[in-house]
Structures are given as C-alpha cells and as structure tokens.
Amino acid sequence: AGAAGAAGGGGRAPAALAPRLAVDLQLMDAEAMRFADASFDSVIDTFSLCVYGRPERALSEMRRVCKPGGRVVLLEHQRSGGALGAYQDATSSAAARLGGKGCVYNQDVAAMARAAGLRVVRQQPALLGVVALYETVPV
C-alpha cells in the first residue's frame, strides 16, 4: 500500500484530504507591515530573525499585528551555550558574509522577544541548542 492507502484515504492522496483555505500572500517589509493592529490570532516566523536588519523591530511588528490573547511562534537559530556558543560567536560574522545568506546565528532570541514586548511562555531547544522553538504572547 502506498502513502494514500496507509493514510486510509481510499486511494486519494493525503493532500486531497486537507481543507481548502484561501491564502492571500503579500510582499512587504517585516519591520513595517501594512496590516492593521491585532489582525491575526497567530503570527509565525521561521528562521528569519537571523537575516532581518533590525530583528527587534520585526518582532515588535509581529507583536503589533497579533491579537490580544494570540501568540507569536518563532522557530529560530540562536546562540547555544558553552564551547559551541563560543564557536558561534567567533564565526557568526564571517559565516553570515561568506555563504550564510546574512544569517547571524548567535542571537539571543529570548532577549530580543522580551525587548519587543513579547513574553516567552515556552522555549524548546534542539540541535545542541543552536535552534529553538519559542511560543510567545504579547505583553
């Protein structure tokens, strides 16, 4: 049985089982979004804070467009601890310039979130602490 059969889809592909959602993709500056205040129940950012010129400003915008009681979820590169963190500090600038697509991978994401008016309610590190999932809420 293929993936569709294993999923119990009666021969239909798993993607066909998903509900159809209207999506409106818009290109804009993450540091100055055109959305109204409190527009979204959830705001999700993945592996982008490391490339924003002013990540704290982008986080402030995420907080602004998130509804009260909503959440801002971040999956990001971050500074690890110990020797690995020291290595990240020593190599981050060069790596960002030389093929890292500008990614500054040794940032303190929790501190940036707090500075932007977000409270970290859950932090789940992975990959020796160089990546973490953050669930935050507007303060």
Explain what this protein looks like in three dimensions:
This protein has 139 residues and is an alpha+beta fold. Helices cover 30% and strands 26% of the residues. A four-stranded mixed sheet has the order 1-2-4-3. Strand 1, helix 3 (55-65) and strand 2 form a beta-alpha-beta unit. Mean pLDDT is 87; it is low at 1-10.
Q: How would the blueprint of this fold be written?
A:
Elements (H helix, E strand, L loop, with lengths): L2 H4 L7 H4 L22 E7 L8 H11 E12 L4 H16 L11 H7 L2 E9 L4 E8 L1
Parallel strand pairs: 1-2
Antiparallel strand pairs: 2-4, 3-4
Percent strand: 25-35%
- Which spans have pLDDT < 50 for at least 5 consecutive residues? 1-10
Secondary-structure-based class equals: alpha+beta
> Element order, helices and strands?
HHEHEHHEE
**Looking across the biggest beta sheet, what order are the strands in?**
1-2-4-3
Please give the share of residues in helix: 25-40%
In total, how many beta strands? 4
Distance N to C terminus? 50 Å
